[in-house]
Specification:
By secondary structure, the protein is mainly beta. Helices cover 1% and strands 50% of the residues.
């Protein structure tokens, strides 16, 4: 059995599965399999929901389920070539599928990778809020933790440069016509660049990253706003962020900051609400709503395009022992300038303020099993007279208490 050491008890919460079965290791050729099953049970309460007539406990409900990033996979390497395939549930929905499939070849000038891999500009572990498929801080000072995309990447040292396919390029967009002519789908692959540094013990220490894509008004991105026939303006979508995580003996401090415009178009920034469920920002029209663009709703009640998002996340962690740790943190995000962020009087509204705080108390029962009790508070507020609507008096707040059960091999 092969062990990959995580830097601390708290850090291991969001790490890749800590153990793998080594099936073959001979003549510089290796084959490993691994798995991570993650479930949760708890209760959530919507502080903003009105009491239902005859149902005084309507705003409160229990939470129980399989975390939708559970998975199993295979790592293979021979000489300078390595590959990985991973199957499991997707953070974006409730169905299972191929999460990862890529190959990489290492040369003296760096490593070249092609396939479906995590975006270089996602968070590799600066937040330990495991709600919302380990992205509990997304929209509340953090960025996406996992966003797998087809890409061509070049890596050397801690530097990673990639061209990513967020939406399939189709050449000519036959769904959109103007003056009787078909229009080219002029979007480009997204460009993502990041640099990651680790400390002397191999623990995550620093990461900086930035992404950019020019979006055509005739491209498929606009299906998020009004449907396939919408021909909006060309947009520039981008964001940049950094994370810093120094360690002091058994303790660490983790800080993230991010800023961008239209970053919701490719999913690495977001403005979401939590109504007391395990997930937030559910694009399927569930109890939790995503308020970035028009998703199963009226475009005039959503943020729209050209929104600027600025946020920060701060977390403190401490390992009391090899089995028991603590993480306490919070974050804030301001969303302004969206194409629908106006008051009913026609003036610009004051933006959407999103705040979250949590405490996490992971306990390692055995080498393979970890329990992680968590209590989190979320609050999202906007101007009461804004056209963007997402709750009573334009405020949504909730409290969630739950335990995550994580089994790895």
């Amino acid at each position: 059995m092969k062990k990959v050491v995580a830097g601390s008890m708290v850090s291991a919460l969001l790490a890749l599965p800590s153990f793998g079965f080594e099936l073959y290791n001979n003549d510089n050729t290796k084959l490993d399999v691994y798995a991570s099953m993650r479930g949760y049970i708890g209760v959530g309460h919507n502080l903003s929901a009105p009491e239902g007539t005859g149902r005084p406990n309507a705003p409160t409900g229990y939470l129980m389920g399989l975390q939708n990033n559970s998975r199993f996979g295979i790592n293979f390497s021979t000489g300078d070539f390595r590959a990985q395939v991973e199957y499991g549930w997707m953070e974006e929905g409730t169905s299972a599928g191929w999460r990862l499939y890529y190959g990489a070849y290492k040369t003296s000038s760096g490593e070249f990778l092609f396939g479906r891999q995590n975006s270089p500009t996602t968070d590799p572990g600066f937040s330990s809020n495991w709600l919302n498929a380990d992205t509990g801080s997304l929209g509340f000072g953090g960025v996406a933790l996992a966003l797998r995309r087809i890409q061509v990447a070049y890596k050397i040292g801690g530097l990673n440069i990639a061209l990513l396919e967020d939406k399939a390029g189709t050449g000519v967009n036959t769904d959109v016509t103007q003056d009787g002519a078909y229009r080219a789908n002029a979007q480009m692959p997204r460009i993502a660049v990041s640099y990651t540094a680790k400390d002397a013990d191999g623990n995550l220490f620093l990461k900086v990253g930035a992404s950019y894509v020019r979006v055509s008004g005739y491209g498929p991105y606009y299906s998020n706003y009004s449907g396939p026939d919408y021909s909006g303006p060309d947009l520039h979508a981008y964001h940049a962020w950094f994370g810093y995580k120094p360690r002091f003996g058994n303790a660490y401090i983790s800080f993230m900051a991010n800023a961008g415009k239209n970053g919701d178009l490719y999913g690495e920034q977001s403005t979401t609400i939590s109504t007391g469920a395990y997930t937030h920002g559910n694009i399927n029209g569930n109890i939790n709503e995503n308020i970035n663009g028009n998703i199963n709703g009226n475009i005039n009640t959503k943020i729209g395009y050209n929104a600027t998002r600025i946020g920060a996340h701060l977390e403190f962690g401490y390992d009391f022992s090899k089995q028991f740790g603590m993480a306490i943190g919070g974050g804030y995000q301001l969303t302004t300038g969206g194409s629908n962020q106006y008051k009913t009087t026609g003036e610009r509204d004051g933006g959407i303020n999103s705040f979250a705080a949590f405490i996490n108390l992971p306990y390692k029962v055995s080498q393979n099993l970890t329990l992680a009790p968590l209590v989190a508070y979320y609050s999202v507020a906007g101007d009461t007279d804004s056209k963007v609507r997402f709750g009573k008096e334009n405020k949504q707040s909730s409290v969630i208490g739950a335990v995550r059960i994580k089994w790895d091999f």
